Amino acid sequence: MSPQRRTALVSVAAAVGLVVLKAVTGLLTGSLGLLSEALHSATDLVAALLTFFAVGVSGRPADPDHPYGHGKAEHLAAMTEAAILVVASLVIAGVALAHLAGVLEPAVDSAPFALVVIGIVIVIDASRTVVSRRAARRYSSAAFSSNALHFGSDLVGSVAVLGGLLLAAAGYPRADSAAALFVAALVLLAAGRLLRRNVDVLMDRAPAAADEAARRAILDLRPPVDLRRLRLRQVAGGHFADVVIRVPPDAAVGQGHAAADAVEAAVQRVLPASDIVVHVEPGDEDAAIRERAHASALAVPQVREVHNVKVIDLDGRTELSLHLKLPGAVPLEEAHEVANEVERAILAAVPELDAVQTHLEPLGETGLGTRPGDVEVERDRVLVNETVREVTGHPPRALRFVHTDEGLVAFLTLGLDGGADLREAHRRASEVEARIRMRRPGIVDVVVHTEP
Asked: Where would you tag: which of 20, 86, 142, 428 has the fewest CB atoms within 10 A of its CB?
């Protein structure tokens, strides 16, 4: 039997003993607090049995029917436990409220042996909490973690029941019901935490801290790796990561494999219990040609703007077309000479091209902009500030709006970590821009400036 299952079996035995001890004492003394704790311990017994089963199932290796292993069994057990806790707490709360409202008359006998029993219960609850918490840390187990939380709430509830019995002995019989109501509230609170945490795992919600750590580890690799996609999910204390990277199209198989190994090792360093799959894609050769051609065209002094750069494969020939923007007042003869110079520059910088075709366009006329009033754009200002906080963790350093002929334009400045590389800065800026455009279509353009 594995150490995890032995720990779970100890919890089962302890839960059985506590249910019997609390229930018998509660029936003999008429204490609702002790009966509520017996019901609470009954849920502990179910939870411990579920944990015993779940740990055994989740520890099984992956098989053809379960290629990702059986780790989610622990989270299913924790969800079932949470549902049981909700039902038990509502029953306890209903009876306690009936006593406190006078609908039912409490009859509590605070016999000395009841106080001894609750003292023993407190000692057992404390020991179970410590054992489960240590097991949760040692095995990174969601089931043991939920048990530790549950047993901790038992400990607090048992102390409250002890206080209720002492007050009942002093002539305040409804104090026992008040303690029972407090136990019910603790149970509901614990159930809510369990439900939220385990629903996130079962729905494959990306763990934000782990995702950021893995992404940073990959981006910090030297030589750098072109990260295209990272998908992360958490199961039973471990992580599954799907990573897509790009390598130069002329890279050898060994180079691609070495890059994948480096990515896997980087993620393993920050997330030790991880199953990582790295997919290697060849880089876009046409994109490299477009970038070199674009840079060569802009190096010609008269060129103001270059766009629509396209690579075309035609009958074994590689050709390139692009649009050039020059000042509208330039004579056609002079513009044609500029186009010829651009074509010569591109062919010299990109010798694999067989031909270059340019399309001339005039620069757009200068538009007239006006500043809107603060009240007019207050809603837009709030939306932009919230969006930037979501992406960067803090508001923009500067934000202003301008009305143009096309519509409202937002200009904002992001302050980012000075150690981040340009790719990360551009990714953050693009994410901010995309979110603002999606949430507020009325903003026709978003101009994002990044600075350390």
From this structure: 20
